[in-house]
Amino acid sequence: MITTAKRLDIIEEYYFSSKLREVRQLAAEGKPIINMGIGSPDLKPSQAVIDAVVSAMQDENAHQYQSYQGLPELRKGMADFYQNNYGVALDPNVEILPLIGSKEGIMHISMAFLNEGDHVLIPNPGYPTYSSVTNLVGAVPVYYDLKEVNNWEPDFDALEKLDLSKVKIMWIGYPHMPTGARGSLELFEKLVAFAKKHHILLVNDNPYSFVLNDKPMSLLQVEGAKDVALELNSLSKTFNMAGWRVGMVLGSAKLIDSVLKVKSNMDSGMFYGIQKGAVEALKSDQSWFDSMNAVYKKRRVLTEQLAEKIGCEVYKEGVGLFVWAKLPTGIASAEDFIDKILYEKSIFITPGTIFGSNGEGYIRFALCVKEEKVQEAINRFS
After folding, report:
1. What is the per-residue pLDDT across 10-33, written as a single tens digit (0 to 9) for each?
2. What's the rounded Cα separation, in Å, for the pair 175 and 197?
3. What is the rounded average pLDDT of the residues 194-208?
4. CA separation (Å) from 289 to 25, 297, 355?
5. DSSP secondary structure letter of residue 18
6. Which run of H or E residues covers position 80?
């Protein structure tokens, strides 16, 4: 008998991988499913981006293997994007590494810096991949609480009481997923100081900063952050390119070189045409963000109405691609609540529990559904 590696004993299939099979089966059975669960943008990239990809198909080297570090013009575009939008100066030759989606970067960073038995600070609630990757590399997840009473920001007094002697990496992500908490430069400054004090690699996962957010921020804006920090970013949500798989990791040359050692042994560079499209996307001006957010703003208004229609209390301060809402009083299980809605109303909503124990009592709606569909969802509760 062929047995699996022991590492698989401590992880499960990603929630959306398994749950969406169930949702697709219901749709195949004729159920009029409205999927408000997953944050996969339904809007298109700009026409300029699509034209750039089409044009690139005829380039002489378009279909060859590409550099592990990406096209020089892509790295330059990423550097210009950070300078223009965050005021952060980066050397495109050594401080930026394009990724096949920023999710890839979570694994690469973990493999580059974690030994078996190292501890990793993971937000609760937070992106489930932080935990699964930590387990896959044999490190130990140590969860730190994020709670609404603290506006979903870390309690530094509680952090200082933890045994931090084995902590190697701390994952953060602001704007926060799943709650939409904005964070602040003051918070980033505290986090950088904390990381320096305890010799921890701080990694900010930053794919949502341009969605319904008038104050985009980068952890790298903090003076001295490059000494202890990396930042992940992505074109998936910002430019409606989720399926294109274009991400980046940014930081000091020494840290980036360590990540490159892992990446270069695991994959090759992105397809040439996709890189050319990404270069064009990164040139987008404020009118692109304004037009995208005009759509999301209308959707958020309707989605908040839906949440309130089913008795939930919306976290109004949230930004990003989701609406985070507290369940009605007396509801014991977020998963039972969303399953009842799925089976009775054919609407799929994400339970907060998949993001950690502090997600119990909450649900999350994605703004990746057209206005008429959100209105239809509202009408199903009339």
Report:
1. 777 666 677 778 888 888 899 999
2. 24
3. 97
4. 35, 12, 28
5. H
6. helix 72-86
Q: Residue 241 and residue 233: Cα distance in Å, rounded?
A: 13
- State pTM to two decimals: 0.92
Tokens coding 233: 């970013």
Token representation of residue 373? 């569909």
CB of 336 within 8 A of CB of 343?
A: no
Tokens standing for 221? 């804006």
Q: How far apart are CA 372 and CA 110, in angstroms?
A: 42
d(CA 49, CA 71): 16
Number of H helices and E strands in the chain, helices first, is 12, 13
Q: In terms of Cα–Cα distance, which of 180, 187, 245, 178 is closest to 212?
A: 180
Distance from C-alpha of 72 to C-alpha of 243, rounded to nearest angstrom:
22
**Cα–Cα distance for residue pair 172/49, rounded to 1 Å:** 30
Q: CB–CB of 375/363 below 8 Å?
A: no
Q: Which residue has the tokens 């005021």?
A: 87
Q: How far is 128 from 245, CA to CA, in rounded Å?
A: 19
Q: Which residue has the tokens 């932080």?
A: 130
Residue 85 structure tokens: 């939008």
Residues 228, 202: contact at Cβ < 8 Å?
A: yes
Contact 220, 86 (CB under 8 A): yes
Q: How far is CA 361 from CA 122, 251, 321, in A?
A: 20, 37, 20
